[in-house]
Design goal:
Structural class: alpha+beta
Distance between the termini: 38 Å
Number of helices: 24
Strand content: 5-15%
Shape: elongated
Oligomer: single chain
Largest sheet: 5 strands, antiparallel
Radius of gyration: 31 Å
Length: 739
């Protein structure tokens, strides 16, 4: 591989006009496609194989005009202190509001609180339910404005009015901190390279790669049903890895220049050596992201595949466009140890003979490996302690900030009707195979009434054919509580008994049941997903490092990183530590997809640093150095660059903490803290400590396996053979000249 990439790097350097033209053309094509593509609607959310999804699909089939996936709004009214909603003026205001709400072209139905018995027992709170034909993201601005205007008119009449539901769902914003993250990355690159030109290359190529990736996602969003979160995730990961991959190749290029090589030769060698590490690091990220398909949740699969595509583009750009741009830059990119005129006058760095920080740190770890290992494990273990109280769930209006009308509507409904009113369960009774459908409906209703934790059970509402009915169940606990989850399981258990007696199927659905099934599906998929991703990456790393213990150590170190990162996420988003600093207005359960998502993404990113750092050690060991000295050599050449890459990745991920969407905020924080733990504790401390303790055993590989594995030559041994052949040819030419 090293020889192929070496030739590719030299070709890109020589044919830089052609390479640059190809990437600019691709960026233009993707941009035009994004600009001309139809506006994407809301991405559909489905959980194949779950009971809640089966019930949802059945509703679509048996109640065709129901618009089961349409947006909903709950307009909640509260009477002034000392008054009742049934008072003449208040009642008239509510009726006028209901009439105004029903005028919209996208509205399918509006319930009158006084006819639907939607008034609290004390008479102070009432609500009107509004149902729309389309989803919240597809709802026209005019419909949202009409909803807000109707609520405001009722407020002007003296009532307290709040609006809940997904009808006022807003498009998430990432905030200005994303730009700050890129600015921090730029500063780190300038400090690392001592040159504005060299620092600008990784930023430029990363932005081009992300531009192509995100524009392509935007162009295909409508056709492939991709949501806004998909492009945000692709941007987040694409920026981070794009900058890092380019950083490693530019850094190696400068090191090759410092050894006296010509610029084209240096570009070829940089791509042949660091580029090999980039390919395998990118492969681990792609495996981790594409592996999300194992969960069998379409939304998660699309997010993973789209982000993996952006990572693949980042790898290709690093291998081709970076050497092309280095050709354009010429002498403006200085050899390692020199600074540009602007930042250092072009003078060689002082005290070049003095060991750098990476060398000094690695030497210390090699001398005290056991102490460093124990200290690192204890530190990560302490950070992981909060993960033991991890509570999973999906956000609802109750997790919104108290400043929002959705949260205030949620609180008013809880106050007037009880906490379970915000999470009603919809029971679907399929009596098509039953000989007495009406009797089956009644039996289901009676059985549910006898269950613990039930406040209200509405009468069965059959469809026109009379073979299917819906029953709404109000729990006595809030939607995200364990008691509500237990009630869902209890109803389903009763459904098995009822089917045996009446041949009628009982299915539980609704937002609350869907969230419960979603969390369960993710939990069930976590172990198979972990086994698949870690297993494939383990095999890949065996090929890269030609060792058994090094990949095993890499996988165990990753588990420490992800557990510590999950602990930090729990401490901030569930316990509320540093919540004001992070802009977390409301604490609550951690999103159900967070553990499996962090396992996938963090594993891929963690292997980046493992590959970049340990391949340098492997290279030194293969070329004859002792194991302990190879560790120091690896840090001498790689620690500074890995540190810069980690700081850049942390800065980019931290930029998304400013997002208005809780999911993006949590992912940004989780990935940033995970990279911090993995890069600076696991890879910089635990890895050299373990390798120092293992010595030569770290690079042990059974002979039979060594013969069976393909030789990918990440260390660039083939380039040495090319040098030897070149020198032999030159000697032969000189001998011919003498003759």
């Amino acid at each position: 591989m090293a020889t192929f990439l070496y030739k590719l790097g030299r070709l890109a350097f020589r044919r830089r006009h052609f390479v640059a033209l190809i990437w600019v053309a691709l960026l233009t094509l993707a941009g035009v496609g994004a600009a001309s593509a139809p506006t994407a609607g809301a991405s559909s959310f489905s959980i194949p194989g779950t009971e809640a999804q089966k019930a949802f699909d059945l509703l679509e089939q048996r109640f065709p005009g129901m618009s089961a996936d349409g947006a909903t709004a709950r307009v909640v009214f509260k009477a002034p202190s000392g008054e009742k909603m049934a008072d003449k003026n208040n009642k008239a205001t509510v009726k006028n509001t209901v009439k105004a709400l029903g005028d919209g072209s996208e509205v399918t139905s509006v319930t009158d609180p006084f006819k639907a018995h939607a008034v609290s027992k004390d008479g102070s709170v009432a609500y009107a339910s509004v149902k729309y034909k389309v989803s919240g993201m597809e709802l026209k601005d005019s419909s949202k404005t009409a909803l807000e205007d109707a609520a405001q008119q009722a407020r002007d009449a003296g009532l307290t009015v709040e609006v809940g539901g997904d009808a006022l769902q807003a498009t998430p914003e990432t905030g200005s901190t994303e730009v700050i993250g890129i600015a921090v990355a730029a500063v780190v690159l300038v400090i690392t390279f001592g040159s504005l030109i060299a620092a600008g290359l990784p930023l430029l190529t990363a932005l081009i790669g992300v531009g192509i990736g995100v524009s392509t996602i935007t162009a295909l969003a409508n056709a492939l049903d991709l949501g806004t979160t998909t492009s945000t995730l692709a941007m987040m990961i694409g920026l981070a890895v794009g900058i890092d991959y380019a950083l490693f190749i530019v850094s190696r290029y400068r090191a090759e220049l410092a050894e006296g090589r010509e610029r084209e030769e240096a570009a070829g060698r940089a791509v042949g050596t660091a580029g090999s590490a980039v390919v395998f690091a990118g492969l681990t990220v792609v495996i981790a992201l594409v592996g999300l398909a194992v969960v069998n949740i379409p939304m998660l699969t699309k997010m993973g595949v789209a982000a993996a595509g952006t990572v693949a583009i980042a790898v290709l750009i690093a291998l081709t466009m970076i050497p092309a741009l280095l050709g354009y830059a010429g002498r403006k990119v200085q050899p390692a140890g020199k600074k540009s005129k602007l930042l250092g006058g072009g003078r060689a760095a002082r005290k070049a003979h003095k060991p750098n920080m990476g060398t000094r740190w690695a030497s210390f770890v090699v001398r005290r490996p056991l102490a460093v290992l124990l200290l690192g494990i204890v530190g990560l273990g302490a950070a992981a302690i909060p993960a033991t109280s991890l509570e999973l769930g999906l956000p609802d209006d109750g997790s919104q900030p108290t400043s929002t009308t959705q949260r205030r509507a949620y609180d008013l409904l809880s106050e007037g009707f009880g906490p379970g009113f915000n999470g009603p369960l919809m029971v679907v009774v399929d009596a098509q195979s039953s000989g007495a459908p009406k009797a089956a409906f009644t039996k289901v209703s009676d059985e549910i009434k006898g269950l613990k934790g039930v406040v209200t059970v509405t009468p069965p509402a059959p469809n026109k054919a009379g073979d299917t009915a819906t029953i709404t169940v109000i729990p006595d606990s809030k939607p995200s509580s364990v008691k509500t989850e237990d009630l869902v399981h209890a109803i389903r258990d009763k459904g098995g008994e009822i089917k045996a007696d009446t041949d009628a199927k009982v299915l539980v659905t609704g937002t609350t049941a869907m969230n419960i099934d979603f969390s369960q599906k993710l939990n069930d998929a976590l172990i198979p997903y972990l086994a698949l991703v870690v297993g494939l990456a383990f095999l890949l790393l065996i090929v890269v490092f030609r060792s058994i213990l090094v990949p095993l150590k890499a996988a165990l170190g990753f588990l420490l990183s992800v557990l510590a990162a999950l602990g930090a996420v729990v401490a901030v988003f569930q316990w509320g530590w540093l919540s004001n600093l992070m802009g977390v207005e409301e604490t609550g359960p951690i999103m159900s997809m967070m553990p499996i998502f962090m396992v996938g993404v963090v594993f891929g990113l963690a292997m980046d640093y493992e590959v970049f750092l340990v391949t340098r050690m492997r290279e030194a060991y293969v070329h004859g150095e002792k194991p302990s000295q190879a560790i120091v050599t690896g840090f001498k050449h790689g620690a500074r660059v890995v540190t810069a890459a980690a700081v850049i990745m942390i800065a980019v991920f931290s930029g998304f903490i400013g997002s208005s969407e809780s999911m993006i905020k949590m992912i940004g924080f989780g990935l940033a803290i995970a990279v911090f733990f993995d890069a600076f504790i696991v890879r910089m401390a635990l890895v050299p400590a373990v390798l120092a303790l293992l010595g030569k055993k770290a690079w042990w590989l059974p002979k039979w396996l060594d013969r069976a594995l393909p030789n990918v030559d990440v260390e660039g041994e083939g380039l040495r053979a090319l040098d030897a052949d070149r020198r032999k040819d030159e000697d032969d030419d000189r001998e011919l000249v003498r003759v």
